[in-house]
Amino acid sequence: MPFLTAAVLAAFVGYAGAWYFELVEGNFALLLFLATIVTGVYWVAERLYYLPKRRRAAEELEANAAERRASLDARGIVADDPQLAETRQRVLAQPWWLDWTAGLFPVILAVFVLRSFLFEPFKIPSGSMIPTLLVGDLILVNKFTYGLRLPVLNTKLTEGTAPKRGDVMVFRYPPKPSLDYIKRVVGVPGDEVAYLNKKLTINGQPVESTRLPDYFDRDAMRYFKQFEEKLGDKSHRLLNDDERPAFIPGVEEFPFKQNCRYSVEGVACKVPEGHYFMMGDNRDNSLDSRYWGFVPDKNIVGKAFLIWMNFGDFKRIGSFE
């Protein structure tokens, strides 16, 4: 078993290393699921076989020591074994290969349940959601609001509440589902969404927008036009870049592309059933549904709701819309 365990641990370390150096495309949910299963098997084996076996060995050790003392006492020899307690502890101690498997199972199981069904942490990697979310923000995503899903398979277990316009949502990137993206829900099933000349309309109604003071992007060292937009009952800020054109360059092929009409002014799309139209708040610096299409319900990960840390700016900690 020590050799088998060493091989299993080496496989996990090798996979994690290859993922880190981008030699393979990693899947953390699958890795965590497999770690839970493997350590769970060891934990059961420890409780049902290895621990009782060590206890029997300790009891046999104590029985032999007691028999030896009785034999010496019968001959009038007073003897004691000062190392008996230490020897007993060594016999009962978990070997390293169980300590690194069965011993980790409760922690891994707790992380698996928490991450799969309650909350999952993410780090914002790009500026597509500026000014709402900045690069380096560490956020929490609610995994149950939109319905509980089986980990890895992402099969829906409960219905939950359907995503609403204005929600900030994490989802699996449709062209490459192994990647997680974060954008704002702009269109829900059945909506006619138009973004023409950098103005958003939904079902023919212009979305309420108010001009705010320009926003200074410290990374770009530039000022951008800033607006407050109201989607449903939620208000959020967004940016526009006057140097970027209104038309959408480099549009990919995607399912239901026939629902969209592209022009030099922008794009208008009819959102199909079971799908959502997503846009970043940094409107001219966001690769979103305008480029790669709609997000199917099966790709939903959860609703982002809290910045729990930003090591460059502690003032950013808190909830957001």
TrEMBL record:
Transmembrane stretches, start-end: 28-45, 97-118
UniProt-listed Pfam families: Peptidase_S26
Assigned EC number: 3.4.21.89
Domain of life (superkingdom): Bacteria
Catalysed reaction equations from the record: Cleavage of hydrophobic, N-terminal signal or leader sequences from secreted and periplasmic proteins
One of the GO BP terms on file: signal peptide processing
Active-site residues annotated for this sequence: S128, K183
Recorded name of the encoding gene: lepB
Family: Belongs to the peptidase S26 family.
Domain Peptidase S26 per the UniProt entry, residue ranges: 98-309
Membrane protein topology class: Single-pass type II membrane protein
Species in which this protein is naturally found: Ramlibacter cellulosilyticus
Keywords: Hydrolase, Membrane, Protease, Transmembrane, Transmembrane helix
Official protein name in the record: Signal peptidase I
Protein location: Membrane
A GO cellular component entry from the record: membrane
